[in-house]
Specification:
- Helices cover about 55% and strands about 5% of the residues.
- By secondary structure, the chain is of the alpha/beta class.
- The chain has two domains: about 30-150, 2-Layer Sandwich (Zincin-like), CATH 3.30.2010; about 155-270, no CATH class.
- Strand 1 and strand 2 form a beta hairpin.
- Helix 6 (about 130-150) runs antiparallel to helix 7, helix 7 (about 155-165) crosses helix 9 (about 210-230) and helix 8 (about 175-185) packs across helix 9 (about 210-230).
- The longest helix is centred in the first third of the chain and has 24 residues, at about 5-25.
- It is globular, with a radius of gyration of 21 Å.
Length: about 270
Amino acid sequence: MNKKIKYSILGVITLIICFVIYSFLFGKLFPYSPIIIGFTKNELSNTAIYIQKGTEYKKLERINNLIPFVEKFHELKFKRKPRIFIFKDKDSYYRLNISKARFCSYYNGSLVISPWALKESENGEISLDIYLKHELSHSLLQQHAGIIRASQYPAWLLEGIAVYSTNQMGTSWYPSKDKTYDYIRGGNFMPPKYFKTSKEDDVNLDVKYRITFMYSEFACIVDYLIEKYGKDKFLSYMKKLTNENSHDRVFKKVYGIQFNKSIQDFKESVIR
């Protein structure tokens, strides 16, 4: 290999490294970065809250005090303080974050809060506590699973646990349990395994808000499992999935029946 080719390869590798470093410090990978630039760190007893410079937000203890509630339901402790990021404007949020949602938790347990979510909370459109507890539920399970296994954790279950544990059904745009049951009786149902796959778009749902219906449906499945088999068994199922990535095998091991059969039983219990 001549020097020209070697230098070309070295140049490409250097560019890739520079791009990755930039992405961590100033780009989309920012929530994963070990080095935080442009934010003021607030170290509290349960959390580390980073506020982007130029932002005014003083209700830090309110966020910090949500941690015990989340740990109590899941019967798990955070392995490390969750890192929570508060942004000053949309441009910064979009530049330093993959998601465009109000809130987002990442596989490393970091959690980001959009500036418009804070405004919606102040205007009484959403409950900041409920939404944050929802994301902290994700963060807690992601911490225990680790980055790789967290990416394999069943997406429907992650959302179902978060909605159920925070009593989110019936708030904001989320249909209540009764309304969700009415939708299911009307022929609306998202098979849990289709969620966040290419098959999801093939399922027609005649509901007011598609995504919040699905989240409430998954919360109803969690509710069904807890009511029928007990919370201890459900927590065993939930925790085993942070260490094992074969969902159906774990479900069968814990509940003694096939997952698909359990989903069918749930649907029949709703329709009766």
